[in-house]
Amino acid sequence: MSQSQSAPTVLFVCLGNICRSPTAEAVFRHKARASGINVTIDSAGTHGYHIGNPPDKRSQQAGVAKGYDFAGLACRKVAVDDFEKYDYILAMDNRNLEHLKKISDEKYHHKIHLFLSFAKSDYSEVPDPYYGGRRGFELVLDLIEQASEGLINRLRAQQ
Fold first, then answer.
1. Is residue 42 part of a domain?
2. Which among 15, 31, 110, 118 could disulfide-bond with 151, CB atoms 3.0 to 4.6 Å apart, if both were Cys?
3. CA-CA distances (angstroms) from residue 65 to 60, 70, 141, 147?
């Protein structure tokens, strides 16, 4: 947790902050609230392709069907101060993990992890569903739910 011992902070990161990371933000916000965990949550992309746009409609459809709320979410790019601000910076795949490490000071590398490192899964990365169909978005949602449960357990253990 951050030096002030306040609520933990979590940033979910994918390439464009249009599918995977906003889905993780919506799912984790819901699960943390249901678990009674006080946590600050955000999402961002390593690239600024969709800045200001809402999450992909297909991500929203898959998530809303399972009770998740995407209201108010908008795409943004990772900022330099995110590395200091967030306790957990969780990349959806190895490409984004490496990019985050490349653009951050080494003193922040201990905060950067693959999100699925918190899941018991045959997958190590959350696959990018952007160019696929409905089933890809559903798989992403399932993987994010699993990793969210693991992260909640980690945060509980730290409290």
1. yes
2. 118
3. 8, 12, 11, 19
Structural domain of 50: 9-158
Total structural domains in the chain? 1
List, for residues 86-119, the tens digit of each pLDDT value.
999 999 999 999 999 999 999 999 999 999 999 9
Residue 27 falls inside a structural domain: yes
At residue 2, does pLDDT exceed 70? no
What CA–CA distance (Å, rounded) separates 23 from 56?
A: 9
> Residue length, the chain?
159
Active centre residues (catalytic): 14, 20, 128
Q: Are 52 and 131 in contact (CB under 8 A)?
A: no
Domain membership of residue 120 (yes or no) is yes
Rounded mean pLDDT, 52-74? 97
E strand segments, 20-153: 40-45, 88-91, 112-114
Other beta carbons within 10 angstroms of residue 81's beta carbon come to: 8
